[in-house]
Design brief:
By secondary structure, this protein is of the alpha/beta class. It is about 55% helix and about 10% strand. It has helices at about 1-25, 25-40, 45-50, 70-85, 95-100, 110-115, 150-165, 175-190, 190-215, 225-230, 235-245, 250-260, 280-285, 290-295, 300-305, and strands at about 60-65, 90, 125-130, 145-150, 220-225.
Length: about 300
């Protein structure tokens, strides 16, 4: 009886996954479904945009900066669960932008950011996660900041597999779908070494902006590395929570420690978001001349963050 119930639930889930994209494509039904989905997943963001969300919590707000393919979503979920236990509210502007016409804030100039300054509050919130430096946040010194980085050579390798195979596409009803699919097709029509050559300057600029606009200007930035998390998760998490003065129950900590085992899959799968979970993967995936080129191109970054 129990087995039949499980099988029925699995069948229903499969049917829903097949039918949902069709319904979303219908003019009236799709609009209604999209509206309900946005309200469910981004209720806080929508209320902040309307000026209707407030949190009386006095804990200094945290802003989480990172890089795509540096476990940004994984760490976002960890921080969000810990923030909730501390009565803080998580705000995900980049995720909201991914599915809507809201802009990626890290792509805006200081002038363009002026209209969005009111979306940041110095107390009671976790703003997570941004894949690049957001300039123009008023009184950034009042926030606690985490910057999580990863070896740029590994980032490029991980990006190649993510954009080509694993990363889900944005909603068609936003304004990011076409650009994403162009990037996916471009990636699928290049080799991994060609991708590394063509995208290294873009990634270098992201690192450099973090150094120039964040690390060189603000002293309260907590810098941590993907590699440190992979090597010793428990110590990495303990130090992170201590720095940000976030309390975590023993039940939550135990759950996080158990879930961390998934950071290193038993075998590589290019269609999974967490494809391999190891440091130094670029040594296996890239040709020697590509590695030499990246070593020279990223030399200041490798030296700055201890990747030499």
């Amino acid at each position: 009886m129990g087995i039949n119930r499980i099988e029925n639930k699995s069948l229903i889930k499969k049917i829903k996954n097949l039918v949902k994209p069709i319904l979303w494509g219908l003019p009236i039904v799709g609009d209604n479904m999209r509206s309900k989905s946005l309200q469910k997943n981004y209720s806080v963001e929508i209320k902040l945009l309307r000026g209707e969300h407030h949190n009386e919590n006095t804990h200094r707000s945290i802003i989480h900066f990172s890089l795509n393919r540096a476990a940004s979503q994984y760490v976002r979920k960890i921080l969000a669960r810990c923030a909730t236990e501390n009565s803080m509210v998580t705000v995900s502007w980049a995720e909201y932008a991914f599915d809507t016409k809201f802009p990626y804030l890290d792509n805006l100039s200081i002038r363009e950011m002026k209209k969005y300054q009111c979306l940041f509050k110095p107390n009671g919130y976790l703003f997570s996660v941004f894949g690049g430096m957001v300039e123009g946040i008023e009184e950034l010194e009042k926030y606690r900041i985490i910057l999580m980085v990863r070896d740029p050579r590994d980032v490029l390798v991980s990006e190649y597999y993510s954009y080509g195979y694993a990363h889900k596409a944005p909603s068609r009803r936003g304004n990011k779908y076409d650009d994403f699919m162009k990037l996916r097709l471009k990636t699928l029509h290049t080799t991994i070494d060609q991708y590394a050559f063509s995208e290294c300057d873009r990634l270098l600029n992201t690192y450099q902006r973090y150094i120039d606009k964040l690390l060189n200007r603000y002293s309260q930035v907590y810098v941590t590395r993907y590699e440190d998390m992979i090597a010793d998760y428990q110590n990495w998490l303990t130090e992170l929570l201590n720095y940000f003065e976030l309390k975590a129950s023993s039940a939550l900590l135990q759950s996080l420690f158990e879930e961390s085992r998934s950071l290193k899959p038993e075998k590589e799968n290019i269609f999974e978001h967490n494809r391999k979970g190891m440091a130094g993967d670029y040594k296996e995936k890239l040709q020697a001349e590509t590695i030499d080129f990246l070593n020279n191109r990223f030399f200041p970054i490798l030296e700055k963050f201890g990747y030499k």
